[in-house]
Amino acid sequence: MSLFKARDWWSTVLGEKEEFDQGCLCVADVDNSGSGQDKVIVGSYMGYLRIFNPHPVKPGDEVQAEDLLLEVQLREPILQVEVGKFVSGTEGLHLAVLHCRKLCVYAVSGTLGNVEHGNQYQIKLMYEHNLQRTACNMTYGPFGGVKGRDLICIQSLDGMLMLFEQESFAFGRFLPGFLLPGPLAYSSRTDSFITVSSCQQVESYKYQVLAFATDADERQETEQQKLSSGKRLVVDWVLNIGEQALDICVVSFHHGVSSVFVLGERNFFCLKDNGQIRFMKKLDYSPSCFIPYCSVQEGTINTLIGTHSKVLNVYQDVTLKWATQLPHIPVSVKVANFQDLKGVIVTLSDDGHLQCSYLGTDPSLFQAPKVESREINYEEMNAEMKELQKIIREATKTQDILPESEKQRDLTVTAEVSPDLDAESQATASEVKAETVPSVSVKITIQSRVAVQKPSLAVCVQAPLAVTCDQFSFEDLEPESSETVVLSVFLKGNCSPSELEGNCMVSYNIPTELNPEGIPRVAQCSFSLPLRLVCLPAQPSKAAAQKLTIDTNKPPVTFLTIFPDFVDASEGDQANALGFQFLTGSKTTLLASKTSQRYRIQSEQLEDLWLIAKELTRRLEEHFKKQNCKDFACTFSGSIPLQEYFELIDRHFELRLNAERFRELLSERAVQFRAIERRLLSRFKDKTPAPLQHLDTLLEGTFREVSA
């Protein structure tokens, strides 16, 4: 632990139950203000994009509302955010947002505001690329030595580098010997992409080699050749570091040499452009993130390294120069310039603690103020109090900025899920093979206390669940008015959902005297869906391949109490086994021990255990909460089924390989069919029966081979 704490310059907590990771933080002058002042861009796995313009606050004060320039929900998880020259025809900075299956590039701009809370910011989609493969991370730079613009390279989970020349896709290449994706960086000095493979090797690939290698879309080789040769890519240099890497960063300061920094699990490496080690530092702690940020002395580079013990270390090459305590574990760290303060350290934790801090030695100790020994003049105090109360009353009357009401919000949204399934299912275009796919109604009510402009409602559930309608627009609402909509939720995809929850979000404007168009506001709520929406009661099974045992610290609760919707009332408290038949066809059994405080969940497939386990723990927690029991806990003491989990991943990739082989075979046969058709038309213009027999024979053989 460090003696000194990081001095809090500005901090906030982002959202509720949101998750963040290494690529979710970026600092840059994204709105092209020209002031040299950075903005903080944060994306979350829940799909929220936020842009902050931090201002210093006094200790104990809350973050000002105008510090948040923009907050939008993009509906898809945000894997990484970067700022660069991504739009052709301009050298202005734009924001690139990487989703799992999409790359979006936005322009960020602000409109001068007429009220005290500041300017209004918005984003405009410049272009987007739909990805054919699931993305992992990305890097950018002037690939090939281009001037005045940045190109983007995305690494997919299956080892393909997809390169985009701004609005157009350039090419894709598979990395050789690929197993799992690692960190990716671009070196403009050598025009190379640098990554760390699953073989624990730092590998460098020249851009020109990638550009002239065999195209990833060509299917001339066998599957074994693909896995071994990686599309005949030739690596520029390789360095074995003997451990997995957390991050890679390539830096070149104005009076320093270009260096490649690699943060491993136990060591910190600095490499030359050709892969030779400049220096390495063995770490006696577990690092979480890092960033090389400057060169204060010729030939040396300063680096910040965050740790899992909430410490931020400052190194000059391999020498530890400073250590400071953080209030959280950082997953990403940046260095930014704000107003007249340069070198502010920006850190982000995995649960959304965003902090701007600086290093210092000021003690964090409370100092009691000096007591002035003077007589109190009560008449002067009363006069001053009356004057202050008068000022407060006048300010309350004329205040144009709407204060946050603690007792009552301007607009509230509530969602009420029907306790029963719909008598007539509203499911449409469902891929589920069950005879009937049930649906459940959700009643959403918007209650406004003041006049509201342009209210719109968005309803979101996670796939494979779907709603009958997810967007609603309303007329302007008068004070003390309300709007109600009813929609239905059902299982659309032929697989079980990961959670039975949904979200409602209402965006609206509040008009004021100085801003008739309104100040934007957002209200949201969540709702839980019934388990009967995705499964039905069934006979429990005695034997199963996958089993999971949950221990509790309280006596077992009867299934009639916690699962009344799945237990026949005639069985009473005697039922100690429940069967759940999922609409997708699989079955899961829940057992309660009569002699111990344990519950067992079993099924033939590992993936079917999760939803019932989550529902069981949720219902147990609600039951004991009603009993005013505060120390209830569920624990798992068994071994984690990693082997079964890895086998599930292997089967997934095998299916993908089979599907690709199926498409290749169909493509090859289509070429053969067209050639045969041309020959038949030229040779048998008037003799159709014989050639058609040959064609039928060929078709039968093709589908026999495809089936095999």
UniProtKB/TrEMBL annotation:
GO terms for cellular component: BBSome; membrane. Residues 435-527 form the PTHB1 GAE domain. Residues 639-707 form the PTHB1 hairpin domain. Keywords: Coiled coil. Residues 371-398 form a coiled coil. Residues 1-363 form the PTHB1 N-terminal domain. The keyword Coiled coil applies. GO terms for biological process: cilium assembly. Residues 530-637 form the PTHB1 platform domain. Residues 403-432 are annotated as: Disordered. InterPro entries: PHTB1_GAE_dom, PHTB1_N_dom, PTHB1, PTHB1_hp_dom, PTHB1_pf_dom. Pfam families: PHTB1_N, PTHB1_GAE, PTHB1_hp, PTHB1_pf. This is PTHB1 protein. It comes from Campylorhamphus procurvoides. The gene is Bbs9.
